[in-house]
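HUMAN:
Just now I want nothing more than another pair of eyes on a protein record. I would be glad if you read both lines and explained how they fit together. I have put the entry right below:
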Amino acid sequence: MPWQRADLDSLGLTEAACSEALQFVGAQRGAGAVAVGLLLRAGRAPWPLVGRVLLLPGVVQVAGVAYRFVAAHRGSLPGATPACKLP
């Protein structure tokens, strides 16, 4: 759900953390690339396998670099919409 509609206090999250990176709250918690991996693991095949690979040591660090690049440039990447622009 969009963090702007979530009860952040009950989830143990802050606006700053949510505006900085995607947050995953479940049996495990994570932010950024880790959140993407956890989200994929919770999906249907083949996504859980992709999520497990993404969370492997070494892979998750590379994924973190890619996540930060995409987050910083999301408004100018192909397929971007006005909603991708940060205020």
